[in-house]
Amino acid sequence: MDQSIIALIIIGLAIVSFALEKIPLGLTAVLASLAMGVFGITDYSKVYSDFGSLPCIMVVGMMIVSDACFENGVAEALGNKLTKIGLGRNERICTIVICAISCILSAFLSNSAVVAMLIPVVASIVVQSNGRVQNKHVLMTVGMGAAAGGFCTLAGSTPQLVAQGVLMDEGLREMGFFELAKVGAPLCLILVIYFGTVGYALEKRVLKFPDVIPGLEEGTPKETTKKEYVKWKMVLSTAVLLGCIVGFIAGIWDIAVVAVAGASILMVTGCISWKKAFHNIDWNTIMCVAACQGFAAGLDQSGAGALIAEKTLALFGENATPMVLLSALFVVSVVLTNFMSNVSVCTMILPIAINLANSVGADPVSYVMAIVIACQIALATPIGTACVTQTLVGGYHYMDYVKIGLPITVIMTIAGIILVPVIYGI
To answer: Which of 39, 219, 353, 403 has a CA 20 to 30 Å removed from the CA of 133?
Structure first.
């Protein structure tokens, strides 16, 4: 059997496994990468070599930094500040501000970590609002804001790290740290405006269930023991986080070294223990980052990517324009990412996008930018991205996300298709 067909079968099985999630996403990625090596589609070394890649090491480092910030009370301090400035007095304003904060933080921190930090922050504001603010009208925006903010920087989320690895492997121009923000920031602004207007109105109309506040029973506040934090650890954790951000921007070292340096400082100083740091790492994400690059290489090296590109070109006709193909890829990526891991979608589509771009004489880097952004507009279901899934603790149902998230998904898709060629060319 031709290797391109074998590669397509492996990818097809991986897609089904990603969608069903009967086994962890990371394990699916490893098995698919391993299959590429076993069937001779890629060199065996490709199965494991990317575990030491720049994207993979950077993710590990920043997970440790994020966890130290959470452990040492940075989230609680932020919640206290927000409560003091009066966010508990106006629900609409609270929704807008929290959504914006989620977007901004997730541009530099793990999306899931941002949601984990803000869940208790929102609960604190709700409890102190005397009924003026309801958790169900705010919490959903935290997950969606984190998903959107994640594609504003190179460190914001996993798909762009996968894409950066693909660009490096292909010998193409790499993404700058803030390059994605040229499109990502306007899309985040659209999201914030949406939840301050149409989205907020939809929430009021759709979310009829009794308010659920994580950590509280039956909506009744419980007395909780205030945790005492060590001041110098809080200060140092914050300083290291800010230092990593400055390091990413300044480019003094590569982003992996900056992240590892930050994590090392926090572990050496005892801001987070070695054992806890590695115990709390999301190894499923790490396996996805590393192994997905392996089977993506198989899709490319076997010629399967070129085969799919040819079929796609045939579907749209020989005269298909670069803009038509980019739009089609964008829409397909958005649809898939609302049901599958955005890392998986990014990994599957990137080789196809590069092949299609080369086939029609378009800039493959622009196509890569489009896919990275499209595969993170996972706002129409609670299963497309972990940071949205985390907000299910607010008592939401599946269709709540569809009714509130689908309109903004359509709006952001249209805006993205317009902005990508304008900003990056085509």
So the answer is: 403
- The Cα 262–Cα 279 span in angstroms is 18
Using CB atoms within 10 A of its CB, is residue 305 exposed (0-12), middle (13-18) or buried (19+)? buried
C-alpha torsion 324→330→332→337, nearest 10: 180
pTM over 0.85? The answer is no
Instruction: pLDDT band for 223, please (50, 70, 90 cuts).
Output: very low
- What is the 8-class DSSP label of residue 270? T
DSSP bridge partners of 220 = 217
**Lookup: tokens for 294:** 């392996």
**Could you tell me what percent of the chain has a pLDDT over 70?**
90
| Cα separation values, 218 from 132, 221, 290, 299, 397, Å | 17, 9, 43, 51, 18
For the beta carbon of residue 386, count every other beta carbon within 10 angstroms: 22
Tell me the three state secondary structure of residue 90: coil
Distance CA 291, CA 181 (A): 27
| Interatomic CA distance for residues 56 and 294, integer angstroms | 12
> DSSP states of 183-225 as a string?
HHHHHHHHHHHHHHTHHHHHHHHH--SPP--TTSBTTB----P
Question: In angstroms, rounded to a whole number, what is the distance separating the alpha carbons of residues 363 and 337?
Answer: 23
Count Cβ neighbours within 10 Å for each residue of 90-108 and write b for 16 or more, e otherwise: ebbebbbbbbbbbbbbbbb
**pLDDT, mean of residues 196-211:** 95
How high is the pLDDT of residue 224? 45
CB-count exposure of residue 132 (10 Å: 0-12, 13-18, 19+): middle
Q: Dump pLDDT digits (tens) for 7-51.
A: 888 878 887 886 676 787 778 878 888 888 888 888 777 777 777
> What pLDDT is attached to residue 30?
84
Higher pLDDT pick, 208 / 65: 208
Burial track 256-290 (b if 16+ CB lie within 10 A, e otherwise): bebbbbbbebbbeeebbeeeebeebbbebbbbbbb
